[in-house]
Design goal:
Blueprint: H1 10-15, H2 25-28, E1 39-43, H3 46-56, E2 60-64, H4 79-86, E3 90-93, H5 99-107, E4 112-115, E5 124-125, E6 128-130, E7 146-147, H6 155-172, H7 177-201, E8 209-212, H8 218-223, E9 227-230, H9 242-254, E10 259-262, H10 269-277, E11 281-284, H11 300-315
Parallel strand pairs: 1-2, 1-3, 3-4, 8-9, 8-10, 10-11
Antiparallel strand pairs: 5-7, 6-9
Helix pairs in contact: 3-6, 6-7, 7-11
Length: 318
């Protein structure tokens, strides 16, 4: 749709290939922007690409800067991706999650820049999030706390972002505004239903505390009256202090924690070590930063439902 796309060389287009997964082929990998007749959207990573696909439907051509299996926090924008971004009609990203994306977007001349973080509210989260009294934690939170970008793991916040994205699409591509509005409403309804599933499924549990490697589930914990205790901080690659590990093991015993959750895109070594030392089980709680063959589902909704089942099992849902 964007006429400037004609300036991309054939070699550059051929170099960036589509990595499709099921019906979400357009948003699953870093496919070439292409000289399409559609509304061309570059998304920073899977949760943003999924929104663009669901809302845009047949009218959009979505490409993701982050390939399936790639840790989004580690993304470094290539020259080809910079050109791809420059020649798109819109970019959908989440500010402060991927610094290289933030820099590329700031320097680009893309007419429609949609920052998902500006469409809802962000909170400062550390290693512990929720209503946990934590009287048995003897140490202050030693990991850095910061504005938590993981808004897509809260269906309510994700729905707020969806509504904002829908309005931005309507404004940028008015010829298809009615369809964007209809698709947005359908997506928000599905997210509302997902929220109800989590509310009902986590209402009555033996414990409200869950232990995970990556502090990605703070918004989810707050939404459903749980407490997230994270081994690492908001950065999944950070290492916990010895004092933090000791506190977690003590907390797990006091609060009846049964499971240490880890994720598919980051090493499970620390989780398994703590689980072994504290005689706990391990399981996957997926932050849905990308869909791969290891994901327990083919899209956002399927993986969220899998996460719900994992939490119900770990927390002893009645």
């Amino acid at each position: 749709m964007n006429v400037r796309r004609q300036h991309i060389s054939g070699a550059a287009i051929a170099a960036v290939t589509a990595l499709g997964l099921g019906t979400l082929s357009a948003c699953s990998g870093a496919s070439a922007a292409g000289n399409t007749d559609k509304f061309d959207v570059v998304a920073s990573f899977y949760p943003m690409a999924f929104l663009a696909e669901q809302i845009g439907g047949d009218h959009v051509h979505v490409t993701s800067l982050t390939e399936p299996g790639q840790e989004p926090h580690d993304l470094e924008i290539s020259a080809k991706q910079t050109a791809q971004l420059q020649d798109s009609d819109a970019v959908l990203y989440l500010k402060n999650l991927q610094p290289s994306v933030d820099d590329a977007v700031a320097q680009s001349e893309v007419k429609t820049k949609i920052d998902a973080a500006s469409l809802t509210t962000l909170e400062k989260h550390g290693n512990e999030v929720g209503g946990h009294a934590a009287e048995h934690d003897d140490h202050e939170n030693e990991e850095l706390a910061g504005l938590d970008p993981h808004i897509w793991l809260d269906p309510v916040r994700y729905a707020q972002v969806a509504e904002g994205v829908g309005k931005a699409f309507e404004k940028a591509d008015p010829d298809h505004a009615a369809d964007y509005q209809k698709n947005t409403a359908a997506l928000v309804k599905k997210l509302d239903d997902l929220n109800t599933q989590f509310e009902d499924g986590l209402k009555n549990t033996k414990t409200k505390v869950f232990l995970t490697t990556h502090a990605a589930f703070g918004y989810l914990a707050e939404r459903y009256g749980l407490t997230e205790e994270a081994i690492n901080g908001l950065d999944p690659e950070s290492e916990p202090s010895a004092a933090r590990v000791k506190d977690l093991e003590k907390m797990a015993k006091a609060d009846g924690v049964t499971t240490v959750f880890y994720e598919t895109l980051v090493s499970d070594k620390t989780a398994k070590t703590i689980a072994s030392d504290a005689d706990l089980k391990t399981d996957v709680l997926d932050p849905i930063e990308g869909i791969t063959s290891k994901s327990k589902g083919d899209d956002y909704f399927q993986v969220m439902e899998s996460n719900l089942k994992a939490l119900q099992s770990a927390l002893g849902a009645k």
